[in-house]
C-alpha cells in the first residue's frame, strides 16, 4: 500500500473530505482558514480554492445542485460556483454551549450532524438530523466532541464517534423512519495512543477511522476487530473518504493545528491531503434531498 500526498494546498485544519462522483473531484475544507478546496485527483491537476464567509464544519452535496453547508454556528445553502451562501435557521440549538462539527448524509437524503463543546470539556454536544424539509431534530445528547458519522452498507447500523471520550458508538438504524436506538460502545479507544476522529465505511462494512494523535488510519471489521493500520508521516490525521472512479482510493485529511513549532518542523507534510489505493472499495457518498 503506497501512501502519496498533494503538496498543495496545505490546510491549517484540514477536514471533511467528500467525493463528488459527478464532477470527479475530491472536496475538503480548512476549518481554520475558512476555505473550501477541491481537485481532480489526477496527476498535474490544480486545486480550486473557495473562500467561505464563516468557519466551516461539515457539508453535503444536494441532489438538486449546490451544497448544504454547516458552519460552526449556522446552516446555509452554498453555491460552490459563485460562493453565495444563503443561511437558514438552525432551530433547537444553543450556540453559546455547542457548535457544529462533523456530518454526513444517509442514503435517504437526510443530513446527520453533531455538535461539540467549544472548549472540548463538557458534555454539551448532541447529534442532530436535518430532514429534506430543513426540520432539525436532536437525536442524541451528552457528547463532548461529536465526530465521524457513517452507515453500514445494509443501512441497519449507524456509527458515531465521541472523539474526546475516546468512544465509537453503534446504533440500530431505521433508514425508512430516520430513527436510531440501542446505543452501545462499538470500539473503546481507551489505552490507545490516539482518539477517533472522522470515519467512513467500505463496501464490506469495515469501518475506517482517522486516529488523531496516533498518526494513522485504522480499519476495523464489522465486529469491531482491528484489521490493519496505515501509518502516516503526520500525527494528526482528521478524516477519511473513499473516492476515485472505482471508489478504491482512500483520501485522508490532516492538520497543522495543535502542533508545537518543533513538531511542525518534524512533520513538514502536516496539513496535506494524503491518498492511497485500497483493496476494498468504498460506497458512493449520498446527497442531501432538500
Automatic annotation (TrEMBL):
Superkingdom of origin: Bacteria
Domain SMP-30/Gluconolactonase/LRE-like region per the UniProt entry, residue ranges: 13-255
Pfam families in the record: SGL (PF08450)
PANTHER family, per the entry: REGUCALCIN (PTHR10907:SF47)
Family membership noted in the UniProt record: Belongs to the SMP-30/CGR1 family.
Entry protein name: SMP-30/gluconolactonase/LRE family protein
Protein's organism: Pigmentiphaga soli
Lineage of the species this protein comes from: Bacteria, Pseudomonadati, Pseudomonadota, Betaproteobacteria, Burkholderiales
Amino acid at each position: 500500500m503506497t501512501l502519496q500526498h498533494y503538496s498543495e494546498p496545505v490546510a491549517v485544519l484540514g477536514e471533511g473530505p467528500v467525493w463528488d462522483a459527478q464532477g470527479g473531484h475530491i472536496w475538503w475544507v480548512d476549518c481554520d482558514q475558512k476555505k473550501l478546496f477541491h481537485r481532480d485527483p489526477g496527476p498535474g491537476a490544480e486545486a480550486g480554492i473557495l473562500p467561505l464567509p464563516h468557519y466551516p464544519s461539515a457539508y453535503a452535496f444536494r441532489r438538486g445542485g449546490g451544497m448544504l453547508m454547516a458552519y460552526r454556528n449556522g446552516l446555509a445553502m452554498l453555491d460552490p460556483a459563485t460562493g453565495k451562501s444563503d443561511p437558514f435557521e438552525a432551530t433547537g440549538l444553543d450556540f453559546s454551549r455547542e457548535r457544529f462539527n462533523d456530518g454526513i448524509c444517509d442514503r435517504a437524503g437526510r443530513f446527520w450532524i453533531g455538535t461539540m463543546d467549544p472548549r472540548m470539556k463538557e458534555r454539551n454536544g448532541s447529534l442532530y438530523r436535518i430532514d429534506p424539509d430543513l426540520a432539525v431534530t436532536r437525536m442524541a445528547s451528552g457528547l463532548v466532541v461529536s465526530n465521524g458519522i457513517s452507515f453500514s452498507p445494509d443501512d441497519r447500523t449507524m456509527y458515531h464517534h465521541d472523539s474526546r471520550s475516546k468512544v465509537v458508538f453503534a446504533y440500530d438504524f431505521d433508514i425508512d423512519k430516520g430513527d436510531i436506538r440501542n446505543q452501545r460502545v462499538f470500539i473503546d479507544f481507551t489505552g490507545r495512543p490516539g482518539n477517533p476522529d472522522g470515519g467512513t465505511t467500505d463496501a464490506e462494512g469495515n469501518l475506517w477511522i482517522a486516529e488523531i494523535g496516533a498518526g494513522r488510519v485504522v480499519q476495523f471489521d464489522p465486529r469491531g476487530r482491528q484489521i490493519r493500520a496505515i501509518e502516516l508521516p503526520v500525527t494528526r490525521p482528521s478524516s477519511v473518504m473513499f473516492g476515485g472512479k472505482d471508489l478504491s482510493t482512500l483520501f485522508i485529511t490532516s492538520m497543522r493545528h495543535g502542533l508545537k513549532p518543533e513538531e511542525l518542523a518534524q512533520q513538514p507534510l502536516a496539513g496535506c491531503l494524503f491518498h492511497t489505493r485500497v483493496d476494498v472499495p468504498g460506497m458512493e457518498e449520498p446527497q442531501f434531498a432538500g
